[in-house]
Amino acid sequence: MELGGVIEYGLFFLSFVGIYALLSLGLNLQWGLTGQFNIGIAGFFAVGAYTSAILTTAPSPHHLGGFGMPLVVGLIFAMVLAGLVAVLVGLLTVRLRTDYLAIATIGIAEIIRLMLKNEEWLTNGVRGIPGIPRPFAETLGAGTLGQSDAVFLLVVVALILIVYLALEAARRSPWGRVLRAIRENEDGVRAAGKHIERFRLEAFVVGSMIMGLGGALFAHFVGFISPEAFTPEFATFLVWVMLIAGGSGNNKGAVLGALIIWLVWTGTEFLTSMAPPEYVTQAGALRLLMIGILVQVILLVRPDGLLPEETAERK
Amino acid sequence: MSIEVRDITKTFGGLTALRDCSLTVEPETITGLIGPNGAGKTTLFNIVAGAFKPDSGQILFEGADITGLGTHRLFRRGIVRTFQVPNEFSRMTVRENLMLVPSGQTGESLAAAWFSRRAVRRQEEEIAAKVEDVLAFLNLDRVGSELAGGLSGGQKKLLELGRTMMTDAKMVLLDEPGAGVNRSLLVHLIEAIERLKEERGYTFCIIEHDMDLVERLCYPVIAMVRGEILASGAMEEIRSNRTVVEAYFGNAKAGGR
Protein backbone atom coordinates (compact mmCIF):
# COMPACT_ATOMS: atom_id res chain seq x y z
CA MET A 1 0.00 0.00 0.00
CA GLU A 2 1.32 3.43 -0.88
CA LEU A 3 1.72 6.21 1.68
CA GLY A 4 -1.40 8.14 0.66
CA GLY A 5 -3.57 5.13 1.37
CA VAL A 6 -2.00 4.58 4.76
CA ILE A 7 -2.53 8.19 5.75
CA GLU A 8 -6.10 8.13 4.55
CA TYR A 9 -6.78 4.96 6.49
CA GLY A 10 -5.14 6.45 9.55
CA LEU A 11 -7.36 9.52 9.38
CA PHE A 12 -10.43 7.37 8.93
CA PHE A 13 -9.42 5.15 11.84
CA LEU A 14 -8.68 8.05 14.19
CA SER A 15 -11.91 9.83 13.34
CA PHE A 16 -13.85 6.79 14.46
CA VAL A 17 -11.74 6.60 17.61
CA GLY A 18 -12.60 10.24 18.24
CA ILE A 19 -16.33 9.70 17.84
CA TYR A 20 -16.20 6.75 20.20
CA ALA A 21 -14.04 8.72 22.62
CA LEU A 22 -16.88 11.24 22.94
CA LEU A 23 -19.39 8.47 23.66
CA SER A 24 -17.03 6.98 26.18
CA LEU A 25 -16.46 10.36 27.86
CA GLY A 26 -20.21 10.87 28.11
CA LEU A 27 -20.61 7.43 29.65
CA ASN A 28 -17.78 8.12 32.06
CA LEU A 29 -19.70 11.04 33.50
CA GLN A 30 -22.78 8.85 33.96
CA TRP A 31 -21.27 5.55 35.00
CA GLY A 32 -17.67 6.31 35.94
CA LEU A 33 -18.52 9.22 38.21
CA THR A 34 -22.18 8.89 39.14
CA GLY A 35 -22.67 5.12 38.88
CA GLN A 36 -25.59 5.36 36.45
CA PHE A 37 -26.01 2.15 34.49
CA ASN A 38 -26.96 3.62 31.10
CA ILE A 39 -27.08 0.92 28.46
CA GLY A 40 -29.11 3.03 26.11
CA ILE A 41 -26.16 4.98 24.70
CA ALA A 42 -27.30 4.06 21.18
CA GLY A 43 -30.49 6.05 21.69
CA PHE A 44 -28.76 9.35 22.47
CA PHE A 45 -26.17 8.67 19.79
CA ALA A 46 -28.98 8.20 17.25
CA VAL A 47 -30.90 11.29 18.35
CA GLY A 48 -27.75 13.37 17.88
CA ALA A 49 -26.98 11.85 14.49
CA TYR A 50 -30.49 12.26 13.08
CA THR A 51 -30.95 15.76 14.45
CA SER A 52 -27.81 17.06 12.85
CA ALA A 53 -28.47 15.13 9.63
CA ILE A 54 -31.99 16.52 9.23
CA LEU A 55 -30.88 20.07 9.99
CA THR A 56 -27.87 20.19 7.71
CA THR A 57 -28.82 18.17 4.62
CA ALA A 58 -30.26 19.75 1.49
CA PRO A 59 -34.08 19.70 1.27
CA SER A 60 -35.40 16.24 0.45
CA PRO A 61 -38.89 14.85 -0.20
CA HIS A 62 -37.98 11.62 1.60
CA HIS A 63 -37.63 12.87 5.15
CA LEU A 64 -38.29 15.92 7.31
CA GLY A 65 -36.25 18.87 6.04
CA GLY A 66 -33.46 18.93 5.25
CA PHE A 67 -33.00 22.43 6.27
CA GLY A 68 -29.58 23.04 4.80
CA MET A 69 -28.31 24.74 7.93
CA PRO A 70 -24.68 25.23 8.83
CA LEU A 71 -22.90 22.38 10.55
CA VAL A 72 -22.48 24.27 13.82
CA VAL A 73 -26.26 24.58 14.14
CA GLY A 74 -26.54 20.83 13.55
CA LEU A 75 -24.03 20.03 16.27
CA ILE A 76 -25.61 22.38 18.80
CA PHE A 77 -29.12 21.09 18.22
CA ALA A 78 -27.88 17.50 18.28
CA MET A 79 -26.70 18.18 21.82
CA VAL A 80 -29.83 20.08 22.76
CA LEU A 81 -32.18 17.38 21.50
CA ALA A 82 -30.18 14.52 23.03
CA GLY A 83 -30.25 16.56 26.24
CA LEU A 84 -34.03 17.02 26.05
CA VAL A 85 -34.56 13.30 25.53
CA ALA A 86 -32.28 12.72 28.51
CA VAL A 87 -34.33 15.12 30.64
CA LEU A 88 -37.47 13.12 29.83
CA VAL A 89 -35.79 9.77 30.43
CA GLY A 90 -34.07 11.16 33.48
CA LEU A 91 -37.25 12.49 35.07
CA LEU A 92 -38.88 9.12 34.54
CA THR A 93 -35.97 7.12 35.88
CA VAL A 94 -34.34 9.49 38.35
CA ARG A 95 -35.19 7.26 41.27
CA LEU A 96 -34.05 4.12 39.51
CA ARG A 97 -30.71 2.64 40.39
CA THR A 98 -28.34 0.23 38.71
CA ASP A 99 -30.17 -2.69 37.10
CA TYR A 100 -33.48 -0.89 36.91
CA LEU A 101 -31.99 2.08 35.14
CA ALA A 102 -30.22 -0.33 32.80
CA ILE A 103 -33.47 -2.02 31.80
CA ALA A 104 -35.23 1.31 31.32
CA THR A 105 -32.47 2.83 29.21
CA ILE A 106 -31.99 -0.18 26.92
CA GLY A 107 -35.74 -0.18 26.36
CA ILE A 108 -35.79 3.49 25.52
CA ALA A 109 -32.88 3.13 23.10
CA GLU A 110 -34.75 0.37 21.27
CA ILE A 111 -37.89 2.50 21.14
CA ILE A 112 -35.86 5.32 19.56
CA ARG A 113 -34.35 2.95 17.01
CA LEU A 114 -37.76 1.53 16.08
CA MET A 115 -39.14 5.04 15.72
CA LEU A 116 -36.31 5.96 13.37
CA LYS A 117 -37.11 2.83 11.40
CA ASN A 118 -40.85 3.35 11.19
CA GLU A 119 -41.47 7.10 11.14
CA GLU A 120 -40.64 7.47 7.46
CA TRP A 121 -41.85 11.08 7.16
CA LEU A 122 -39.22 12.02 9.72
CA THR A 123 -36.26 9.81 8.92
CA ASN A 124 -36.94 8.07 5.61
CA GLY A 125 -37.12 4.80 7.59
CA VAL A 126 -34.75 2.00 6.74
CA ARG A 127 -33.59 3.74 3.56
CA GLY A 128 -31.84 6.29 5.74
CA ILE A 129 -30.58 9.80 5.12
CA PRO A 130 -27.84 10.29 2.53
CA GLY A 131 -25.75 13.31 1.61
CA ILE A 132 -24.94 14.57 5.08
CA PRO A 133 -22.28 17.26 4.58
CA ARG A 134 -18.74 17.17 5.92
CA PRO A 135 -17.39 20.19 7.77
CA PHE A 136 -15.89 22.84 5.48
CA ALA A 137 -16.61 20.62 2.47
CA GLU A 138 -17.40 23.59 0.20
CA THR A 139 -14.44 25.72 1.24
CA LEU A 140 -12.02 22.88 0.65
CA GLY A 141 -13.63 21.76 -2.57
CA ALA A 142 -14.44 18.17 -3.36
CA GLY A 143 -11.95 15.60 -4.52
CA THR A 144 -8.88 16.74 -2.65
CA LEU A 145 -7.64 13.42 -1.45
CA GLY A 146 -7.49 13.07 2.33
CA GLN A 147 -7.83 16.78 2.94
CA SER A 148 -11.43 16.79 4.13
CA ASP A 149 -10.62 13.73 6.26
CA ALA A 150 -7.81 15.63 7.91
CA VAL A 151 -9.99 18.66 8.56
CA PHE A 152 -12.70 16.45 9.98
CA LEU A 153 -10.25 14.80 12.32
CA LEU A 154 -9.05 18.22 13.47
CA VAL A 155 -12.62 19.26 14.25
CA VAL A 156 -13.16 16.02 16.20
CA VAL A 157 -9.94 16.42 18.13
CA ALA A 158 -10.75 20.02 18.99
CA LEU A 159 -14.20 19.03 20.25
CA ILE A 160 -12.78 16.15 22.30
CA LEU A 161 -10.32 18.55 23.85
CA ILE A 162 -13.08 20.98 24.83
CA VAL A 163 -15.27 18.20 26.20
CA TYR A 164 -12.34 16.63 28.03
CA LEU A 165 -11.33 19.89 29.70
CA ALA A 166 -14.91 20.67 30.66
CA LEU A 167 -15.39 17.21 32.15
CA GLU A 168 -12.11 17.34 34.03
CA ALA A 169 -13.02 20.71 35.52
CA ALA A 170 -16.40 19.30 36.50
CA ARG A 171 -14.88 16.14 37.97
CA ARG A 172 -12.50 18.04 40.21
CA SER A 173 -15.14 20.52 41.32
CA PRO A 174 -17.47 20.13 44.31
CA TRP A 175 -20.11 19.11 41.77
CA GLY A 176 -18.01 16.15 40.66
CA ARG A 177 -17.31 15.32 44.29
CA VAL A 178 -21.03 14.97 44.97
CA LEU A 179 -21.41 12.72 41.91
CA ARG A 180 -18.65 10.40 43.10
CA ALA A 181 -20.15 10.35 46.58
CA ILE A 182 -23.53 9.38 45.11
CA ARG A 183 -21.80 6.52 43.33
CA GLU A 184 -20.19 5.40 46.59
CA ASN A 185 -23.07 5.79 49.01
CA GLU A 186 -26.38 7.48 48.32
CA ASP A 187 -27.58 7.45 51.92
CA GLY A 188 -24.45 9.23 53.01
CA VAL A 189 -25.05 12.02 50.50
CA ARG A 190 -28.68 12.29 51.48
CA ALA A 191 -27.68 12.49 55.15
CA ALA A 192 -25.57 15.51 54.20
CA GLY A 193 -28.73 17.19 52.99
CA LYS A 194 -27.95 17.11 49.26
CA HIS A 195 -30.61 16.88 46.63
CA ILE A 196 -29.47 13.63 44.99
CA GLU A 197 -32.05 13.62 42.21
CA ARG A 198 -30.88 16.99 40.93
CA PHE A 199 -27.25 15.88 40.64
CA ARG A 200 -28.19 12.60 39.07
CA LEU A 201 -30.36 14.29 36.47
CA GLU A 202 -27.64 16.82 35.62
CA ALA A 203 -25.02 14.12 35.15
CA PHE A 204 -27.36 12.06 33.03
CA VAL A 205 -28.32 14.99 30.81
CA VAL A 206 -24.79 16.34 30.32
CA GLY A 207 -23.46 12.85 29.58
CA SER A 208 -26.24 12.26 27.06
CA MET A 209 -25.58 15.61 25.37
CA ILE A 210 -21.98 14.55 24.79
CA MET A 211 -23.25 11.29 23.32
CA GLY A 212 -25.53 13.33 21.05
CA LEU A 213 -22.54 15.36 19.91
CA GLY A 214 -20.74 12.09 19.12
CA GLY A 215 -23.77 10.99 17.12
CA ALA A 216 -23.81 14.21 15.09
CA LEU A 217 -20.11 13.87 14.25
CA PHE A 218 -20.70 10.27 13.24
CA ALA A 219 -23.44 11.35 10.84
CA HIS A 220 -21.21 14.00 9.25
CA PHE A 221 -18.31 11.62 9.04
CA VAL A 222 -20.00 8.70 7.30
CA GLY A 223 -22.33 10.94 5.28
CA PHE A 224 -25.18 8.43 5.34
CA ILE A 225 -27.13 7.13 8.32
CA SER A 226 -29.82 4.52 8.71
CA PRO A 227 -31.29 2.85 11.80
CA GLU A 228 -28.94 -0.09 11.28
CA ALA A 229 -26.03 2.03 12.49
CA PHE A 230 -27.58 2.37 15.94
CA THR A 231 -27.88 -1.19 17.12
CA PRO A 232 -26.87 -1.85 20.74
CA GLU A 233 -23.79 -3.87 19.71
CA PHE A 234 -22.00 -1.00 18.02
CA ALA A 235 -23.36 2.02 19.74
CA THR A 236 -23.72 0.77 23.32
CA PHE A 237 -21.83 -2.44 23.98
CA LEU A 238 -18.55 -1.30 22.42
CA VAL A 239 -18.65 1.97 24.35
CA TRP A 240 -19.02 0.12 27.63
CA VAL A 241 -16.08 -2.10 26.73
CA MET A 242 -14.03 0.99 25.92
CA LEU A 243 -14.77 2.67 29.23
CA ILE A 244 -14.18 -0.44 31.32
CA ALA A 245 -10.96 -1.25 29.49
CA GLY A 246 -9.69 2.32 29.62
CA GLY A 247 -10.57 2.92 33.24
CA SER A 248 -13.97 3.83 34.55
CA GLY A 249 -13.88 7.14 36.43
CA ASN A 250 -10.87 8.40 34.48
CA ASN A 251 -11.47 10.73 31.53
CA LYS A 252 -8.07 9.96 30.02
CA GLY A 253 -8.92 6.29 30.40
CA ALA A 254 -12.17 6.81 28.53
CA VAL A 255 -10.26 8.23 25.55
CA LEU A 256 -7.51 5.61 25.74
CA GLY A 257 -10.09 2.83 25.93
CA ALA A 258 -11.76 4.13 22.77
CA LEU A 259 -8.42 4.00 20.95
CA ILE A 260 -7.43 0.54 22.10
CA ILE A 261 -10.77 -1.17 21.73
CA TRP A 262 -11.34 0.34 18.29
CA LEU A 263 -7.90 -0.97 17.34
CA VAL A 264 -8.85 -4.44 18.56
CA TRP A 265 -12.26 -4.22 16.93
CA THR A 266 -10.90 -3.29 13.51
CA GLY A 267 -8.16 -5.87 14.04
CA THR A 268 -10.73 -8.59 14.51
CA GLU A 269 -12.44 -7.40 11.33
CA PHE A 270 -9.18 -7.95 9.53
CA LEU A 271 -8.84 -11.42 11.07
CA THR A 272 -12.36 -12.52 10.29
CA SER A 273 -12.11 -11.23 6.73
CA MET A 274 -9.45 -13.85 6.16
CA ALA A 275 -11.84 -16.60 7.20
CA PRO A 276 -13.11 -18.94 4.47
CA PRO A 277 -16.22 -17.59 2.72
CA GLU A 278 -18.60 -20.16 4.23
CA TYR A 279 -17.77 -18.85 7.72
CA VAL A 280 -18.12 -15.17 6.96
CA THR A 281 -21.61 -14.86 8.47
CA GLN A 282 -20.45 -16.47 11.69
CA ALA A 283 -17.41 -14.25 11.75
CA GLY A 284 -19.42 -11.19 12.78
CA ALA A 285 -20.67 -12.96 15.88
CA LEU A 286 -17.17 -14.23 16.52
CA ARG A 287 -15.88 -10.65 16.66
CA LEU A 288 -18.35 -9.81 19.38
CA LEU A 289 -17.34 -12.96 21.21
CA MET A 290 -13.70 -11.96 21.04
CA ILE A 291 -14.51 -8.54 22.48
CA GLY A 292 -16.51 -10.22 25.23
CA ILE A 293 -13.56 -12.42 26.11
CA LEU A 294 -11.31 -9.38 26.11
CA VAL A 295 -13.58 -7.69 28.67
CA GLN A 296 -13.37 -10.77 30.87
CA VAL A 297 -9.59 -10.77 30.67
CA ILE A 298 -9.38 -7.05 31.47
CA LEU A 299 -11.71 -7.43 34.42
CA LEU A 300 -9.57 -10.26 35.78
CA VAL A 301 -6.18 -8.72 35.16
CA ARG A 302 -6.86 -5.02 35.59
CA PRO A 303 -10.29 -4.65 37.17
CA ASP A 304 -9.92 -0.86 37.35
CA GLY A 305 -8.95 -0.57 33.69
CA LEU A 306 -5.70 0.56 32.08
CA LEU A 307 -5.84 3.98 33.74
CA PRO A 308 -7.65 3.57 37.06
CA GLU A 309 -9.54 6.44 38.63
CA GLU A 310 -7.28 8.96 40.35
CA THR A 311 -8.57 8.90 43.87
CA ALA A 312 -6.13 11.05 45.80
CA GLU A 313 -6.87 14.74 46.06
CA ARG A 314 -4.33 16.86 44.30
CA LYS A 315 -3.50 20.37 45.24
CA MET B 1 -31.18 23.04 71.12
CA SER B 2 -33.92 20.78 72.38
CA ILE B 3 -36.08 18.13 70.82
CA GLU B 4 -39.44 17.22 72.20
CA VAL B 5 -41.13 14.03 71.07
CA ARG B 6 -44.85 13.99 71.84
CA ASP B 7 -47.00 10.87 71.72
CA ILE B 8 -45.44 9.38 68.65
CA THR B 9 -47.05 6.20 67.33
CA LYS B 10 -45.74 4.30 64.33
CA THR B 11 -46.94 1.01 62.91
CA PHE B 12 -45.55 -1.09 60.09
CA GLY B 13 -48.41 -3.23 58.84
CA GLY B 14 -49.66 -5.04 61.92
CA LEU B 15 -46.58 -4.34 63.98
CA THR B 16 -46.62 -1.42 66.35
CA ALA B 17 -43.05 -0.18 66.43
CA LEU B 18 -43.73 2.82 68.65
CA ARG B 19 -46.69 3.44 70.96
CA ASP B 20 -47.31 6.92 72.39
CA CYS B 21 -43.67 7.68 72.85
CA SER B 22 -42.83 10.97 74.51
CA LEU B 23 -39.40 12.19 75.52
CA THR B 24 -37.32 15.32 75.63
CA VAL B 25 -33.72 15.83 74.66
CA GLU B 26 -32.62 18.82 76.74
CA PRO B 27 -30.13 21.35 75.40
CA GLU B 28 -26.44 20.50 75.80
CA THR B 29 -27.01 17.04 77.15
CA ILE B 30 -25.81 13.69 75.95
CA THR B 31 -29.08 11.83 76.17
CA GLY B 32 -28.79 8.04 75.94
CA LEU B 33 -31.45 5.85 74.39
CA ILE B 34 -31.23 2.21 75.42
CA GLY B 35 -33.38 -0.87 75.06
CA PRO B 36 -33.23 -4.41 73.71
CA ASN B 37 -33.21 -5.10 69.98
CA GLY B 38 -36.56 -4.28 68.44
CA ALA B 39 -37.47 -1.76 71.13
CA GLY B 40 -37.99 0.90 68.47
CA LYS B 41 -34.94 3.08 69.09
CA THR B 42 -33.84 3.29 65.48
CA THR B 43 -37.42 3.77 64.31
CA LEU B 44 -37.70 6.71 66.67
CA PHE B 45 -34.44 8.09 65.29
CA ASN B 46 -35.70 7.67 61.76
CA ILE B 47 -38.84 9.61 62.61
CA VAL B 48 -36.99 12.41 64.37
CA ALA B 49 -34.48 12.64 61.52
CA GLY B 50 -37.22 12.77 58.91
CA ALA B 51 -36.74 9.40 57.22
CA PHE B 52 -40.21 8.15 58.23
CA LYS B 53 -43.44 9.93 59.01
CA PRO B 54 -45.18 9.00 62.26
CA ASP B 55 -48.79 7.77 62.25
CA SER B 56 -49.60 10.25 64.97
CA GLY B 57 -47.83 12.53 67.39
CA GLN B 58 -45.57 15.53 67.08
CA ILE B 59 -41.89 16.37 67.03
CA LEU B 60 -40.83 19.81 68.20
CA PHE B 61 -37.38 21.23 67.61
CA GLU B 62 -36.74 24.33 69.69
CA GLY B 63 -40.45 24.70 70.06
CA ALA B 64 -41.25 24.55 66.33
CA ASP B 65 -43.20 21.67 64.84
CA ILE B 66 -40.93 19.66 62.55
CA THR B 67 -43.12 16.56 62.25
CA GLY B 68 -42.89 14.97 58.81
CA LEU B 69 -40.18 17.28 57.41
CA GLY B 70 -37.73 15.49 55.10
CA THR B 71 -34.12 14.75 55.97
CA HIS B 72 -32.55 17.58 54.03
CA ARG B 73 -34.91 20.20 55.42
CA LEU B 74 -34.17 19.02 58.95
CA PHE B 75 -30.53 19.08 58.05
CA ARG B 76 -30.86 22.74 57.16
CA ARG B 77 -32.54 23.41 60.47
CA GLY B 78 -29.63 21.85 62.27
CA ILE B 79 -30.41 18.20 63.01
CA VAL B 80 -28.02 15.55 61.73
CA ARG B 81 -27.80 11.86 62.31
CA THR B 82 -25.33 9.05 61.84
CA PHE B 83 -26.11 5.46 61.00
CA GLN B 84 -25.42 2.11 62.69
CA VAL B 85 -23.39 1.16 59.65
CA PRO B 86 -21.07 4.03 58.72
CA ASN B 87 -21.96 5.65 55.41
CA GLU B 88 -18.48 6.56 54.28
CA PHE B 89 -17.58 7.12 50.64
CA SER B 90 -15.08 4.30 50.24
CA ARG B 91 -13.23 5.31 47.11
CA MET B 92 -12.81 8.90 48.23
CA THR B 93 -10.22 10.23 50.62
CA VAL B 94 -11.06 11.03 54.23
CA ARG B 95 -10.63 14.72 53.38
CA GLU B 96 -13.02 14.48 50.45
CA ASN B 97 -15.51 12.69 52.68
CA LEU B 98 -15.51 15.75 54.92
CA MET B 99 -15.26 18.36 52.15
CA LEU B 100 -18.48 17.03 50.67
CA VAL B 101 -20.63 17.77 53.69
CA PRO B 102 -21.16 21.55 54.01
CA SER B 103 -24.31 22.70 52.29
CA GLY B 104 -24.66 25.71 50.05
CA GLN B 105 -21.37 25.09 48.24
CA THR B 106 -21.17 27.34 45.16
CA GLY B 107 -19.18 24.74 43.26
CA GLU B 108 -21.98 22.25 43.52
CA SER B 109 -23.56 24.06 40.61
CA LEU B 110 -22.07 22.86 37.35
CA ALA B 111 -22.19 26.33 35.85
CA ALA B 112 -20.19 27.74 38.77
CA ALA B 113 -17.75 24.83 38.55
CA TRP B 114 -17.03 25.90 34.97
CA PHE B 115 -17.38 29.65 35.01
CA SER B 116 -16.77 30.98 38.54
CA ARG B 117 -13.70 28.97 39.32
CA ARG B 118 -12.10 31.62 41.45
CA ALA B 119 -15.11 31.89 43.78
CA VAL B 120 -15.29 28.11 43.98
CA ARG B 121 -11.60 27.85 44.79
CA ARG B 122 -11.92 30.43 47.54
CA GLN B 123 -14.79 28.54 49.10
CA GLU B 124 -12.90 25.27 48.78
CA GLU B 125 -10.03 26.79 50.73
CA GLU B 126 -12.38 27.83 53.52
CA ILE B 127 -13.91 24.36 53.69
CA ALA B 128 -10.48 22.76 53.57
CA ALA B 129 -9.43 24.81 56.61
CA LYS B 130 -12.47 23.59 58.49
CA VAL B 131 -11.65 20.02 57.45
CA GLU B 132 -8.16 20.33 58.91
CA ASP B 133 -9.67 21.59 62.17
CA VAL B 134 -12.06 18.61 62.33
CA LEU B 135 -9.30 16.12 61.44
CA ALA B 136 -7.09 17.52 64.19
CA PHE B 137 -9.94 17.49 66.71
CA LEU B 138 -10.59 13.81 66.00
CA ASN B 139 -6.92 12.83 65.65
CA LEU B 140 -7.58 11.72 62.11
CA ASP B 141 -5.02 14.04 60.51
CA ARG B 142 -2.62 11.22 59.74
CA VAL B 143 -5.18 9.40 57.59
CA GLY B 144 -6.60 12.50 55.87
CA SER B 145 -5.29 11.57 52.45
CA GLU B 146 -6.19 7.88 52.67
CA LEU B 147 -9.25 6.33 51.13
CA ALA B 148 -12.11 6.14 53.61
CA GLY B 149 -12.77 2.53 52.62
CA GLY B 150 -9.43 1.56 54.14
CA LEU B 151 -10.12 2.94 57.62
CA SER B 152 -10.75 0.67 60.61
CA GLY B 153 -14.28 0.35 61.96
CA GLY B 154 -13.52 2.75 64.77
CA GLN B 155 -11.93 5.33 62.51
CA LYS B 156 -15.00 5.18 60.30
CA LYS B 157 -17.13 6.02 63.33
CA LEU B 158 -14.87 8.97 64.07
CA LEU B 159 -15.16 10.05 60.45
CA GLU B 160 -18.92 9.80 60.79
CA LEU B 161 -18.75 12.11 63.80
CA GLY B 162 -16.44 14.36 61.80
CA ARG B 163 -19.03 14.62 59.05
CA THR B 164 -21.57 15.92 61.55
CA MET B 165 -18.96 18.46 62.68
CA MET B 166 -18.71 19.77 59.13
CA THR B 167 -22.30 20.95 59.32
CA ASP B 168 -23.62 23.86 61.34
CA ALA B 169 -25.93 21.47 63.13
CA LYS B 170 -25.61 21.34 66.89
CA MET B 171 -28.19 18.59 67.41
CA VAL B 172 -26.63 15.25 66.60
CA LEU B 173 -28.31 11.87 66.64
CA LEU B 174 -25.75 9.07 66.90
CA ASP B 175 -26.87 5.52 66.16
CA GLU B 176 -24.58 3.11 68.01
CA PRO B 177 -21.36 5.10 67.82
CA GLY B 178 -19.55 2.50 69.95
CA ALA B 179 -20.41 -0.59 67.90
CA GLY B 180 -17.32 -2.26 66.49
CA VAL B 181 -14.91 0.28 67.93
CA ASN B 182 -11.85 -0.99 69.75
CA ARG B 183 -11.20 0.14 73.34
CA SER B 184 -8.50 2.69 72.69
CA LEU B 185 -10.47 4.36 69.91
CA LEU B 186 -13.59 4.23 72.05
CA VAL B 187 -11.91 6.34 74.72
CA HIS B 188 -11.08 8.77 72.00
CA LEU B 189 -14.61 8.81 70.66
CA ILE B 190 -16.09 9.41 74.12
CA GLU B 191 -13.66 12.23 74.69
CA ALA B 192 -14.54 13.81 71.35
CA ILE B 193 -18.27 13.67 72.07
CA GLU B 194 -17.80 15.17 75.54
CA ARG B 195 -15.57 17.94 74.27
CA LEU B 196 -18.09 18.78 71.54
CA LYS B 197 -20.74 19.18 74.20
CA GLU B 198 -18.56 21.15 76.63
CA GLU B 199 -16.56 23.33 74.25
CA ARG B 200 -18.91 23.77 71.34
CA GLY B 201 -22.37 23.48 72.82
CA TYR B 202 -23.49 20.36 70.97
CA THR B 203 -26.51 18.33 72.03
CA PHE B 204 -26.40 14.58 71.46
CA CYS B 205 -28.97 11.84 71.47
CA ILE B 206 -27.27 8.46 71.37
CA ILE B 207 -28.54 4.95 70.78
CA GLU B 208 -26.08 2.54 72.34
CA HIS B 209 -25.88 -1.07 73.49
CA ASP B 210 -22.56 -0.77 75.28
CA MET B 211 -23.73 -0.05 78.85
CA ASP B 212 -20.29 1.02 80.04
CA LEU B 213 -20.23 3.64 77.35
CA VAL B 214 -23.75 4.79 78.20
CA GLU B 215 -22.89 5.02 81.89
CA ARG B 216 -19.76 7.02 81.26
CA LEU B 217 -21.20 9.32 78.67
CA CYS B 218 -24.93 9.78 78.98
CA TYR B 219 -27.19 11.74 81.25
CA PRO B 220 -30.11 11.32 81.22
CA VAL B 221 -30.68 7.78 79.97
CA ILE B 222 -34.02 6.81 78.48
CA ALA B 223 -35.02 3.13 78.41
CA MET B 224 -37.34 1.79 75.71
CA VAL B 225 -38.94 -1.63 75.53
CA ARG B 226 -41.29 -2.90 72.83
CA GLY B 227 -42.10 0.50 71.40
CA GLU B 228 -42.72 2.21 74.72
CA ILE B 229 -40.67 4.41 76.96
CA LEU B 230 -40.32 2.80 80.37
CA ALA B 231 -38.09 5.07 82.36
CA SER B 232 -35.63 7.90 82.22
CA GLY B 233 -32.99 9.25 84.57
CA ALA B 234 -29.41 8.55 85.53
CA MET B 235 -28.02 5.16 84.61
CA GLU B 236 -28.02 3.97 88.27
CA GLU B 237 -31.72 4.76 88.52
CA ILE B 238 -32.41 2.87 85.32
CA ARG B 239 -30.44 -0.09 86.58
CA SER B 240 -32.56 -0.17 89.75
CA ASN B 241 -35.86 0.24 87.94
CA ARG B 242 -37.48 -3.19 88.18
CA THR B 243 -39.62 -3.06 85.04
CA VAL B 244 -36.62 -2.08 82.97
CA VAL B 245 -34.43 -4.70 84.57
CA GLU B 246 -36.97 -7.41 83.88
CA ALA B 247 -37.63 -6.31 80.34
CA TYR B 248 -34.10 -5.57 79.41
CA PHE B 249 -31.32 -6.81 81.60
CA GLY B 250 -33.40 -9.82 82.65
CA ASN B 251 -33.99 -10.66 79.04
CA ALA B 252 -30.37 -10.24 78.22
CA LYS B 253 -29.37 -12.68 80.96
CA ALA B 254 -32.04 -15.16 79.97
CA GLY B 255 -30.72 -14.88 76.43
CA GLY B 256 -27.33 -15.88 77.78
CA ARG B 257 -25.48 -12.87 76.48
Please tally the helical runs of chain B, counting DSSP H or I stretches of 4 or more residues.
10
| CATH classification class of the largest domain in chain B | Alpha Beta
How is the quaternary structure best described?
A: heterodimer
Poorly predicted sequence stretches spanning 5 or more consecutive residues of chain A = none
Give helix and strand order of chain A, one letter per element, not per position.
HHHHHHHHHHHHH
Q: SSE order of chain B in H/E notation?
A: EEEHEEHEHHHHEHEHEEHH
Provide the residue-averaged pLDDT of chain A.
89
Instruction: Give me the side-by-side strand order of the main sheet of chain B.
Output: 6-7-8-3-9-10
Structural class of chain B: alpha/beta
The name of the CATH topology of the largest domain in chain B is Rossmann fold
Give an account of the 3D structure:
The complex is a heterodimer of chains A (315) and B (257). By secondary structure, chain A is an all-alpha fold. Chain A has one domain (9-229). Helices cover 73% and strands 0% of the residues of chain A. Chain A has helices spanning 3-33, 41-56, 71-93, 98-118, 120-123, 137-140, 147-172, 174-184, 186-191, 196-222, 232-246, 251-273, 280-301. Chain B is an alpha/beta fold and 257 residues long. Chain B folds into two domains: 3-87 and 168-254, Rossmann fold; 89-150, no CATH class. Chain B has helices at 41-48, 71-77, 94-99, 110-115, 117-137, 153-165, 183-200, 211-217, 235-240, 242-254, and strands at 3-12, 15-25, 30-34, 56-61, 64-65, 79-81, 171-175, 203-207, 221-225, 228-233. A six-stranded mixed beta sheet of chain B has the order 6-7-8-3-9-10, with helices on both faces. Chain B has a four-stranded antiparallel beta sheet with strand order 2-1-4-5, covered by helices on one side. In chain B, a hairpin with a 2-residue loop joins strand 9 (221-225) and strand 10 (228-233). In chain B, helix 6 packs parallel to helix 7 (183-200). Chains A and B meet through helix 7, helix 8, helix 9 and helix 10 of A and helix 2, helix 3, helix 4 and helix 5 of B.
